[in-house]
Amino acid sequence: MSSPQYPNPQYQAPQYPNPTPASFAAAPPLWAPHYGISFRDAIRRFFAKYATFTGRAGRGEYWWWVLASVIVSIILQVVITAGTSYDAYGRPVPGPVAILGYILVAAFTLATLVPSIAVTVRRLHDVNLSGWLALVALVPFLGPIAVLVMVLLPSNPAGQRFDRPTAGGYKA
């Protein structure tokens, strides 16, 4: 009796379906945290949950927004810097482009202030901390550092106590 010779053209390895379950393809409802979220989905979710202070936000949902906010801020700062000239004494004189940049900074800040606070509160909930701890950021010098440390903590399953499931998932 001879042993089979490999590779045997008549032998085919069993084909397995895609190991990713179909349940992972759909995004979780808005009341639930979305772990492993993409940049684009995080920004959409940020604005969909504009003033939602209940529930949780995973690390990705929070940090993708922080990255987007920093990128927009850098772009606006470049616009302001490019539109600023200097007089004979070396003092900055904002031109029309710089003034437009200042207006855009004010509009961006006002448009994203409430949702930025909300996503910070939801991130603290995911760590199983009270959202009121976001007010610690108002303490000069050490407050923002303390909040940074808190949002860097890993997710805690006990944070589920902050979830408020709804049938419609915030209708978004």
Task: Kindly describe this structure.
The structure is a single chain. The protein is mainly alpha-helical and 172 residues long. The protein is built from 5 helices and 2 strands. It has helices spanning 22-25, 39-48, 59-82, 96-126, 142-152, and strands at residues 84-86, 92-94. Strands 1-2 form a two-stranded antiparallel sheet. The chain is elongated.
Mean pLDDT: 85
Based on secondary structure, the structural category is mainly alpha
Pick out the low-confidence regions.
Answer: 11-19
N→C terminal distance = 67 Å
If you compute it from the alpha carbons, what radius of gyration comes out, rounded to the nearest whole angstrom? 24 Å
- Fraction of helical residues: 40-55%
Biggest β-sheet: strands ordered side by side in the sheet: 1-2
Count of β-strands:
2
Shape: elongated
In percent, how much strand structure appears in the residues?
under 5%
Count of DSSP-assigned helices:
5
Largest sheet: 2 strands, antiparallel
What is the helix/strand order? Answer: HHHEEHH
